[in-house]
Amino acid sequence: MTAPQGRRGPAALTMDADAFRALGHDVVDRIAVFLDAMGERPLTPGESPEAVRAALDAGAGLPEHGADPGELLGDLLAAAVNANAGAWILSPMATEIEAQTVRWIAELLGYPADGGGLLVSGGNMANTVGLWAARAAMADWDVREAGVGAAGARPLRVYASGETHTWIHKATDLAGLGTDAIRWIPTDDGLRMDVAALRDALERDRAAGERPMMVVGTAGSVSTGVVDPLFEIADVCREEGVWFHVDGAYGGLAAAAPEAPPDLGALHLADSLAVDPHKWLYAPLEAGCTLVRDRETLRSAFSYHPPYYHFGQEATNYVDFGPQNSRGFRALKVWLALRQVGREGYARCIADDIALSRRMHARVTEHPELEPFTQALSISTFRYVPEDLRPEVGSDATETYLNELNQALLDRIQNSGEAFVSNAVVGGRYLLRACIVNFNTKADDVDALPEIVARLGREVDRELRGPSES
C-alpha cells in the first residue's frame, strides 16, 4: 500500500464535531426516556436465550462494511444501563452482545469463531487469563484444589523470549508459579524467538522431571513490533503437547490488514490468544480480549458452578469464564465500533498506520542527525546522533553518551507538548520509539517529527556537553 499523503482519511471512525454534537443530544434524549420509564419496566426481561439471540441477530457475522455511526457512543449508553455482565439473568442482551463481539474479533483475526473468550480490562489481563487457562489445562493434577505446590506435583514451566511484555512476570507470580518458572528463550538477530533454543529448553526441563506448561509467542513485540516465528512455534507446541499462547495485545489485530506479516496467519493455531481492542480497534479504555480455541478451558480454569441453563437452553454466565464477578458492559463500545467500521474499514485503518510507520522510518533515514534502527508493524525506532559524533558511533564512550543523551531527549520531547514518543532498548542502545495506533495521525505529523526530534536533540546535547564541545 502506498504511504498516505497529507491527511489519510477520513478514517472510518472519524466523526466531525457537528455530527458528534447531534448524536450526543440524541443519546442523552434516549437515556432520559429510558430512565423515566424505569418504574414501568420489569426487573428482569424474562426472555429465553433463544429470543434474546434472535433480537440481536446473534448469528450474524462481522460486517464487511461499516454502518451509520449513530449508535457509537457506547460508554455513555453502557453507563446509563449499568448492566452487570457477570450473569446472564442480570444482563441477557449485554451477555449476548459480548459473545457476538468475541466472535467478531475472532473472525477479524482468522481465529476459530466457534471457540470462546471474554472481554477483560486490557492486554495484561487478557494474557493473564490465557496463562490461568493453560495452568488448569496442563497440570496433570487438580491444581485448582491442591495448588502448584501439591505433593508430588511437577514444577510448571513457561517459555518466552526476552522481548515478551512484562505481563508475564505478574501472571506467573499471581498464578503461584513464581517468576523463576519462566524460561527465557534467546532471540535471533531479528529479535524473533530462536525455535531451536526453545526445543532445547523443553528437552532439558522434561529430562529434569519438570512439566512444560505454556509457550508464549509474541505477535508484535511492545518494543519493536517484531512478530515471532509463530508457525514454527505452533509446530513445536503440537509435537511436545504444550499449550500455545500468543500475546497479540499490540500486533495481533494487524492480521486484519493485507500488509500483515505472514506469521500472523498462524494465530488460528493458538490455544489462547490475547488482543487489546484499545490499541488497534481504537476503543476507549478499558478493553482487552482473551480468545480460546476451546471455551470449556475457561470454564475449567474459573468456574465453581455447573453450566447455566435458562428456559432449558444453555446461557453464558461470564462469571464462570474469567476472574471477575461484577463486570461492566465493556463489550458495547467495541461491538458498536465493529458495526460502524466493519472488516474493510479496520483493515484500511490498520494498513494506513503501518504505511505511516514505514514513512516515518524513511524520513528518519533521510535525516542527517537521526539513526534508524527497526521498523515493524506500526513501530519505528531510532535515535538522535549529533553529526560530529557520527564517526565515533560504536565506541564504548560514544555509545554510553548517546544512551544518556537520548534518555534525556525523550523527557524533553514528552514535556515539549509538540510530539510524543516512547523508548525501546535494542542491543544495549537506548532508542526513541514511535508507535502509530491512532486513526487521527496523518502524514504531516510523521513528516514533522524528525526535525522536532533533531531540534530538541541539539538543545539537550548543548546542555550535556556545553556549547564548545557540541
Q: Point out poorly predicted stretches.
A: 1-7
Highest CATH level, the class of one domain? Alpha Beta
* Helix share bin: 40-55%
- The end-to-end span amounts to 41 Å
Strand order of the largest sheet: 1-7-6-5-4-2-3
Radius of gyration: 24 Å
Which secondary-structure class do the elements indicate? alpha/beta
What's the story with the biggest beta sheet?
Answer: 7 strands, mixed
Mean of all residue-level pLDDT scores = 89
Beta fraction of the residues? 5-15%
SSE layout and pairings?
Elements: H1 17-36, H2 49-56, H3 74-81, H4 92-109, E1 116-120, H5 123-138, H6 143-146, E2 156-161, H7 167-174, E3 182-185, H8 195-207, E4 211-218, H9 230-240, E5 243-248, E6 272-275, H10 277-280, E7 288-292, H11 296-302, E8 308-310, E9 313-315, H12 331-366, E10 370-376, E11 379-384, H13 396-416, E12 422-426, E13 429-435, H14 443-465
Parallel strand pairs: 2-3, 2-4, 4-5, 5-6
Antiparallel strand pairs: 1-7, 6-7, 8-9, 10-11, 11-13, 12-13
